[in-house]
Batch of 4 targets.
Target 1
Amino acid sequence: MPITSITTDPSQLTLTAIGDFPVSVERLWAAWADPRQLERFWGPPTWPATFTRHELRPGGQSHYHMTGPKGETSRGYWFIDEAEAPRRFALRDGFANEDGRPNKDFPETRMEVVFLATPTGSRFVSTSTFPNLAALEQLVAMGMVEGLTAAMGQLDGVLADLRDLSREFATEATVLDDTHVQITRVLRASLQQVWRAHQEAALIRRWMLGPDGWTMPECETANHVGETYRYLWENAADGSRFGFTGELLEQEAPWRAVTTERMIGTDGPGTVNELTLTPLPGGKTRLTLVITYPSKELRDLILGTGMVGGMETSYARLEATT
């Protein structure tokens, strides 16, 4: 049985959605924790959602937009205050401007989602609490109940799909728009292991090699904001070399790092890479890398080099290294 009820309680300033499903609590949690699965039910069918950032952890953030039938967009954010996988999470939910900042013209709500085991599977109870009655009435008038009903009605199909987190490990690239590409990979390694593999030169040299036949003779890491890194690869067959350099712009260890990246020896604009790591049940970690390109042409050029296949080879080595 999918969504069983969506109700409002003006006296408590709440809107509550309840859904029952014939799957485990862990499977139900995974549908909310994985942005690719979350996208398939968070937006109504005519307004599908795209998450460009999703960190279901205390202190994490999620940024998304919904695209309407005529190409119009509506943006939103989550600020995660609490998360106890796979039992519950609590967050602040609101509308966002084009730059991703909170849109103060609309109220921010607090949403708590609790996952419970039942005799037939599992249940989620999502409770949104509004700051005042006017805020509740405003969002209900905007169609929040109808939109949530249509959106959550898709969750049954997501859970019935056998392509869940425990079965998908291959590196995937999703083109978000003309200048943004999102890389995802579920790794059979813990959060701390994956973070260390991106921080320690000795480990980086063992896995970040792309296709067979390459070595990394130079590996200078950036472990503090403002530091620069330098990676240089060499082909064992012909001695040819190439490399990248960049600066560490932001870091929240062991969850997130933002860096610039530019090919050594070139003067053109480079990319900005946002790495996010999310722990998953069973000692796994979801790696998400959002790459911002300076142009669509450069995006297509780099994707056409076989980048994704090389990354998959490297991530498979990372699993063997940890």
Note: The first strand starts at residue 3 and ends at 9.
Target 2
Amino acid sequence: MNVTHHRHRIPKAALAAALSALLIAGTGCSSKADGDGAGDSADGVKGGPGVTEKSIRLGALTDLTGPYATLGKSIVQAQQMWADETNAQGGICDRKIEIVVKDHGYDVQKAVTAYADISPDVVALPQVIGSPVVAALLDDIERDEVLTFPQAWAASLLGKDPVQVLGTTYDIDMIAAVDYLTRAKGLKKGDTIGHVYFEGDYGANALEGSKWAAQRAGLKVAGQEIKATDTDLSAQVSALRKAGVKAVLISAGPAQTASLVGVAASRGLRVPVVSSAPGYAPQLMKTPAAAALEAMLNVVSAAPAVSSDLPGVKRMVAAYQKKYPGSPVDSGVLSGYNAAQLLGADLKKACEKGSLAREDVVKAHRSQKNADTGLGTPQDFTDVSRPASVSTYVLKPDGKAVGGLVGVEDAHSAPGVEEYLSSNG
């Protein structure tokens, strides 16, 4: 996969300007609580915080103004679409769904304040963006028994009853990425791969996976830690070139992926690059790095591409495009809608058992062994210490496809994953 026609350098200013567009924020909506709805209701269903006779209130702690603003907007809109669809069909447990949205801008302190603000009045959190944010809230979430779906996939978030990482964790994704490089891109024993990663849980967990898989395959890893604010990766590319890397893994945000691939292509480091899902956004196909991304990048993801022909995905994409014309349909849409559907199934199950109290919603969730929304692979929520799924898809950028990605390989479990999980268990 060589980029033969991109000998010119991509001007830094042009790339920076294009990437700054990725950080343009959406807007949130908020509704104030009207009491905690504790106690039993007229229909005999036990209530609790966030539950009234007429409504079930959910909370979203999102990023609409920080590095994941585009992702945050997609997830918020997708989950609101699910709530509107659900309410049009009579709601859940004869109650209407309301989602209270708070923007933390990927700022941990703001997120802690926002959690304190909404937590007394919600039954569950179908969206909390950011590993550092979730890590800061873990103790409160456990204490309050609020079922929480992080939009973060660090293995450090496993093992907590009310916290559910959906799909795979970052380490599993990187084991799959190394497997793909050795199978499909000709990497062999003795080769060096670069790994550019964010500081904190996201990067650290991804690096655990890449190092484990590299050792198993006889490869070396040249690591480059970066901050979320680093958007010019020229220095990292120089270091990786010097290290003679045959491929690069990246565990960061879309702006970093575009800079890495764009700079590498312009400097003749034309090697395969593999990112995890949070490192890609379809808006990148409108930047000067687009051609290089199409030629060099693959994305490993627990979810299929939104251009997939899975009937559930096609239905969701059509509904989203109708409801939010002009909004990009990206992986955040799929991820947000999937999380909302899974939470809906948990609430229905809890209602059937006669209680929408928080701890009973958590119990209903943990009893689901083969949860399948039709948006990818089934998930098992019964073992708190394991990722809900270990299957990953391999995708690649395509400027013409809805969501800017197309499938390369269907979901499968990479060889070694079970061995890794039992060695870490």
Note: The CA atoms of residues 193 and 246 lie 6 Å apart.
Target 3
Amino acid sequence: MSPTSPRRRLTTAVLATACATAAAGAWALAGGTASAGTISGALYRDPDTAVARWVAANPNDSRTAVIRDKVASQPSSRWLSNFNVGTVQAEVAGYVGAANAVGQIPQLTLYGIPNRDCGGASAGGAPDLATYQTWIGNIARGLGGSTVLILLEPDSLALQTCLSSSERSARDAALRTATQTLKGANPNAKVYLDAGHSAWNTAGDQAGRLVAAGVAVADGFYTNVSNFQPTSSEAAYGRSILSALSGQGVSGKHQIIDTSRNGGAAGDWCGDDNTDRRIGAYPTTATNDANIDAYLWVKPPGEADGCAYAAGSFQPNLAYSLASSAPNPPTTTPPTTVPTTAPTTAPTTPPTTAPTTAPTTPPATAGCTATYQTTSTWSGGFQGQVTVKAGSSAIAGWTATWTLGSGQTITQVWNGELSTSGSAVTVRNVSWNGALAAGGTAQFGFLANGNATTPSLTCTTR
């Protein structure tokens, strides 16, 4: 989800209107007594999330009580975003099985479509659509048979500016096939497609995209993922989409709204990685609205967007800022237990996961260093990530260079500008991630053909 995406590009004028509505009613919506929608029951809170581990490891931090009580205590979606065909089935089966064991509803966000985020801050995903369907098939085999909520590919329909007409058609077919695969494996799976948010595409335009992508075989659509539009605006937008779908012969669909960051406050979405935002309604299936199946925290509060911090990394200052002025969760929230000791193993946390190779840090050169890690591998290719770190002084720009291994070629780079000469690779910063304070970091990633190796990188400033 890119910093230039319309999903995030909001104006102060829009927000000023939205905030009054959100502040007055966003949290109250979580306390409804009617289940409404098509889902009832408690949402699963994974006890081993990034925020839960931070709480366990920082009992004496002044922010811990607020983060524990208002963020870690709540269910949020598990993101499957680090593309790894070989391990995803086991990850899904473990997560879904844990939810089923306590009689609660798991929530999964699948984020692996090729060319996701149009090469922005959250770029990456599968190398091609055939490999993507293999990944989807492995996910489907881990779903079990109980109710599970699946948010399929944020941005995949609302953000298509980087796709040609044929590429859009291929993506539509891939999403339709993915939906059929997931629901075929588990008839109780609830699959929802991307509908952007109320300040982005028109309802009629978005409805047309949903129909093309097979919403007729899905359970509905979701809105406001990683965004800040008030719940009332999203519900009205959802009703307009439902009406437009009906006009195209599609009925019986429902909406899910991401309320993780739509509780009010204004400001630029990316300027300081959202410390000017607030959490919205606590997650629940009791929406009091027959059109809306659930209010979910799809974007886990406290996880960064890729501006001031690496995308997907948990930042306690962001979580504290989002939650500090929010009321306590309603008493109807199912009781949960936040771990009091740090786990002995490091589980996968969306949207980043433990690297498959240990990071290597070369000696500091000319004011910056570059650290490499392989984040995912598959037959014939791999995904790499490089972290650039400024030295003891601020820098205005950076360049990372290395030599490709035998048989390696780079097919895509995000958060950097790529140039190659034979086997020599050069990646320079883009406009928004070049200036780093002393000790500051930036990251870029890439997809490559060939077998993964650990390169020796050189970093220079400019």
Note: Confidence is low (pLDDT under 50) at residues 1-34, 332-355, 361-365.
Target 4
Amino acid sequence: MNPFVHPVHLENDHVELRPLTMDDADDLREATRDGDLHTLWFTAIPNADGMATEIERRLALQRQGLMNPFAVINKQPGPLIGRAVGMTTYMNIDVSNRRVEIGSTWYRRAVQRTRLNSACKRLLLAHAFEHLACIAVEFRTHAFNHRSRRAIERLGAKLDGILRNHQINPHPSAPNTLRDTCVYSIIDNEWPTVRAHLDFALRASTRHSL
């Protein structure tokens, strides 16, 4: 198995990323109900009834060497500690050019706008640059997903460009609409600065929560 899709366990003080399995389905069904995330027309988040199918889809792509899916496990104190609160992946894997996208990410509403996203990206970026020797890591999002765009920009990623009419939106609440995709990236020589920025932000958020 190529190292980009080999199951790996990543963890820091704030979040645990473990290989996605069907055992995570119940937590993830509850997670998608928190905020009715599947109703967001500019995303492709499964509803509770479709969660098992979505997990199997991601695992099938892993078997094909196209994706490495993770369950996002919350380690922040509170009622959700130890629970799966979302999903994320390495996708659009280009082994020969040592490039990967971090994407198909979503979190339940209760943990959005917390340190969890920065902590999750810190783990994935470190593994990509320091263990997989990536020369670039991409992030892609719908042009109308302004929250996602701001979150990506806060990481230190730069906008490479916008793919106009990139995809046909399959969401049932927005028929006949087209997706403009914003493509961001962090490249390998930027990683030390981005890493310092993320570490500082995580330390600061920890102090402020005390």
Note: The CA atoms of residues 25 and 52 lie 6 Å apart.
